[in-house]
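look at this:
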Amino acid sequence: MEGSPTDFGSAYRLLSGAVIPRPIAWVSTRDDGADNLAPYSFFTVASIDPPIVVFAPVGRGDDLKDTPRNAIEHGEFVVNVVTRDLVDQMNQTAATVSAGVDEFDHAGVEKAESTVVDAPRVADAHVAFECTLHDTVEMGSSTLVFGEVVHVHVADGVLTDGKLDTTKLEAVGRLAGSQYVHTTDRFELTRPP
């Protein structure tokens, strides 16, 4: 079968089902009334120099949810990497709650203060990127939020000789619908010359 993206049911289902697995940005922000924490699976690295990450929540302008709105208004946020031990708490933060509800408290997630930015981080996250807002781009029905990584927290347990060891980081990726994957089924390929 071939055709336009909507010929397959919906563009969202097609893209989110085929572009897999997707890493999850568990984004934390601070607002005047509460701390926000929500997962976004449209997330990746955008640049190495400077180090930039990007997540792409659905919504634009006044239609943005609390987390991206806070990141844009306050200019700071933290991207916490979701790992196997945190997946249930991450799922709880996907719930729709009223503005002003502290999503750390709602999901039973322990928070820690960041070092450089004024946004909390997930205390038990094995990797957390403190970010300052670099730019935003409205594209279609989404807003791409670019953050420059200004400080990083990495748990000693996922380091080998002072470097991040991907074999120790049991990250979780999003598939489609209610399906997720662990990064424990790994294999190696040697890149050809």
